[in-house]
């Protein structure tokens, strides 16, 4: 029986059939008209959106608001709870770099961070000596959307490079700030990826420009005080299937140009001793060869999967000759131990790895070769390695948390192995870890794979199948969902929910093979794993199928669309945030920002009939059928360049046309934001409160 009562008539999207034929196979799309012909220009100026499309999206928002009207008070309560767990005037522990230490802080009621610095050994809490370099709240004034890309100071500490996006389209504008006066210079760089890399003397920087299809296609060199039109083109990537970024080394000796897709890497280096030189190729791209680099004085350390090292190994090569033929192994490949990233300092090599599903930090003394690991004893936890801003140091920084333990920040002396706690996340409204239980269980998939599932619930939650459950999943790009502390989900857990994360294939939770077994032709494993997790939780009485609300976003939204088609009867409700559900049409449209770079993840249906059929077999939009679907909430962003607004809009229209159930299909489009939703920290909490209110309503727990 539906918990949604007295709903108005839902919007009915007109059908305007368009037929597309590929590989001799014809498909008709009734809702292709929702894709605005001028989408590239609309991302920069949302006011030019086709009026018919705008009217439809606004009608959907009106219907959604009517369906959720009785949750207004609940949303306010949830928001207040979540806000109460945030220390509003929080400040980071500044990172030492030269004569200063740099950090961020918030003010009570502030949505955006403020960047500051203090003298190197000063106390960051001393507001009298804290120099505010950039006030995010001030820069955001008068803007319906505003997102900072950070502030990067030059090596001489005189200038800062900062960026912002004020439309949600992820076209960032860069500006240069005089850090002494706090004033911006005349330099304004448009249509960038959001960051850059300073030259050592702070007189110029390198940045990436996005083309009209939102792809990072060119690296430019900008000299302070000159117009953008005069910037020198350093490198142009002609293959639209590759991402590109630019960065600098800790020693300021090199500018890195990192070119990659989801399975292939290529680096080009520019020595800062000659900024006019052509970038030097390290190892030419070979499909399937991945590598990344960090400088270690007279050598580069190279993390790579070369020569069958599926879980990666670390090599070194001379700085003067880093070509692949000169790579020498220093950390061997250990099957089942996945090396995630690496950092090098004057006396130590450091890397973050995952072994037996849990992360650990390993430190090697570069002089003796002696290694030791930093690990923890909890059943499931999360580690973050932030390293250091200086090369000549023995101290690095890392963070630790678990589902029950608030985040802790440590400085770690790699020489003495002393661990110093710098900060523990404060929960102003209070948090007693003893009230909660965190578990790591394993759900058997149909093919025998064991799918890890992380659980959080209150000790007094009955485990007899009656508890509602929010089951979260992602499963793509090798991204691992950490078992870290999440204050927001406590609003569900404290209401008797079991909060669960299914670590499905497509992530790297159990090593690189776990990722490969959930991509391309094996994508179906991701969906089956999630359903297996729901089955296991129901079977073991943590919850029941009648009480499970599934949630996922972006590629996790594709997961939501797939399980809605495959097993709608096993879920009470589904929350799909910015869901990548029109997979086949998107992968057939090579003008879209992410399509060519995404082919190594999903397959290329333009060139391959095999992958056309594989994607068509699971693409959520293409597999909607006339059958009962659970209550579904889809969320989109008008200027989202990653999952375009028309994907959830088309999906909802088709679902509503086909479903035979009485539960509503809702669409909420943020008309002022893109992929990440609202940008302010409290605005984001309002969105989470809305999603949780939907889950609580669907679960019948209002």
TrEMBL record:
User: The Peptidase S9A N-terminal domain covers which part of the protein?
Assistant: 11-424
Q: Which domain of life is it from?
A: Bacteria
What InterPro entries is this protein classified in? AB_hydrolase_fold, Pept_S9_AS, Pept_S9A_N, Peptidase_S9_cat, Peptidase_S9A, Serine_Peptidase_S9A
Which keywords, in A-to-Z order, does the entry hold? Hydrolase, Protease, Serine protease
A Pfam family of this chain: Peptidase_S9_N
**Where is the Peptidase S9 prolyl oligopeptidase catalytic domain positioned along the sequence?**
485-700
Phosphoprotein as a keyword of this entry, yes or no, is no
The record's similarity note reads: Belongs to the peptidase S9A family.
PANTHER family (alphabetical):
PROLYL ENDOPEPTIDASE-LIKE, PROTEASE FAMILY S9A OLIGOPEPTIDASE
Q: What name is this protein filed under?
A: S9 family peptidase
Q: Which organism is it from?
A: Sinorhizobium numidicum
Lineage runs: Bacteria, Pseudomonadati, Pseudomonadota, Alphaproteobacteria, Hyphomicrobiales
């Amino acid at each position: 029986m539906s918990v949604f009562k007295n709903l108005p008539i839902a919007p009915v999207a007109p059908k305007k059939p368009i037929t597309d034929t590929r590989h001799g196979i014809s498909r008709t799309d009734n809702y292709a008209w929702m894709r605005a012909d001028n989408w590239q220009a609309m991302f920069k100026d949302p006011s030019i959106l086709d009026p018919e499309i705008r009217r439809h999206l606004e009608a959907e928002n009106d219907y959604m608001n009517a369906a959720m009207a009785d949750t207004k008070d609940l949303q306010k309560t949830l928001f207040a709870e979540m806000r109460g767990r945030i220390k509003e005037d929080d400040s980071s522990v500044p990172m030492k770099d030269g004569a200063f230490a740099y950090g961020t802080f918030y003010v009570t009621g502030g949505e955006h961070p403020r960047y500051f610095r203090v003298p190197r050994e000063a106390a960051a809490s001393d507001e009298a000596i804290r120099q505010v370099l950039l006030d995010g709240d001030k820069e955001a004034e008068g803007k319906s959307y505003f997102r900072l890309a950070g502030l990067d100071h030059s090596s001489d500490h005189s200038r800062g490079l900062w960026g912002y996006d004020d439309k949600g389209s992820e076209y960032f504008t860069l500006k240069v700030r005089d850090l002494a006066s706090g004033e911006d210079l005349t330099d304004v760089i448009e249509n960038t990826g959001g960051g850059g890399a300073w030259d050592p003397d702070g007189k110029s920087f390198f940045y990436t420009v996005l083309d009209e299809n939102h792809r990072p296609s060119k690296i430019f060199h900008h000299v302070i005080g000159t117009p953008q039109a005069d910037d020198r083109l350093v490198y142009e990537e002609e293959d639209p299937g590759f991402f590109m970024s630019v960065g600098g080394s800790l020693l300021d000796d090199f500018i890195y140009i990192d070119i990659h897709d989801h399975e292939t890497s290529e680096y080009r280096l520019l020595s800062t001793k000659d900024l006019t030189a052509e970038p030097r190729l390290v190892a030419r791209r070979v499909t399937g060869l991945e590598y990344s680099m960090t400088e270690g004085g007279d050598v580069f350390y190279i993390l790579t999967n070369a020569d069958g090292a599926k879980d990666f190994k670390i090599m070194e090569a001379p700085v003067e000759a880093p070509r692949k033929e000169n790579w020498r192994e220093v950390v061997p490949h250990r099957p089942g131990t996945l090396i995630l990233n690496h950092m090098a300092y004057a006396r130590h090599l450091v890397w973050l790895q995952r072994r037996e599903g849990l992360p650990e930090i390993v430190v090697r003394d570069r002089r003796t070769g002696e290694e030791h690991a930093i690990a923890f004893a909890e059943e499931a936890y999360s580690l973050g390695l932030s390293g250091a801003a200086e090369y000549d140091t023995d101290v690095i920084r890392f963070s630790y948390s678990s589902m029950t333990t608030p985040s802790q920040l440590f400085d770690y002396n790699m020489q003495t192995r002393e661990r110093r706690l710098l900060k523990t996340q404060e929960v102003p409204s209070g948090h007693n870890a003893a009230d909660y239980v965190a578990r790591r269980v394993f759900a058997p998939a149909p093919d025998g794979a064991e799918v890890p599932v992380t659980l959080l619930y209150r000790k007094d939650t009955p485990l007899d199948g009656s508890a509602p459950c929010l089951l979260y999943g992602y499963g793509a790009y090798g991204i691992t969902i950490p078992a870290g502390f999440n204050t927001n989900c406590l609003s569900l857990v404290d209401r008797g929910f079991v909060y669960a994360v299914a670590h499905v294939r497509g992530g790297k939770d159990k090593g690189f093979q776990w990722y490969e077994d959930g991509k391309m032709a094996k994508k179906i494993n991701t969906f089956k794993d999630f359903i297996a997790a729901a089955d296991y939780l129901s079977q073991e009485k943590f919850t029941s199928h009648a009480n499970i609300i599934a949630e996922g976003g972006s590629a996790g939204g594709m997961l939501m669309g797939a399980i809605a088609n495959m097993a709608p009867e096993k879920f009470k409700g589904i929350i799909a945030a910015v869901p990548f559900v029109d997979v086949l049409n998107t992968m057939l449209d090579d003008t879209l920002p992410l399509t060519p770079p995404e082919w190594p993840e999903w397959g290329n249906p333009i060139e391959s009939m095999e992958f056309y059929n594989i994607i068509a077999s699971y693409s959520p939009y293409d597999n909607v059928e006339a059958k009962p679907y659970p209550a579904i909430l889809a969320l989109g962003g008008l200027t989202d360049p990653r999952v375009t607004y028309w994907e959830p809009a088309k999906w909802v229209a088709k679902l509503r046309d086909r479903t035979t159930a009485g539960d509503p299909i809702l669409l909420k489009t943020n008309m002022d934001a893109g992929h990440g939703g609202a940008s302010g920290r409290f605005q984001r909490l309002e969105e989470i409160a809305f999603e949780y209110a939907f889950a609580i309503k669907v679960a019948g727990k209002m």
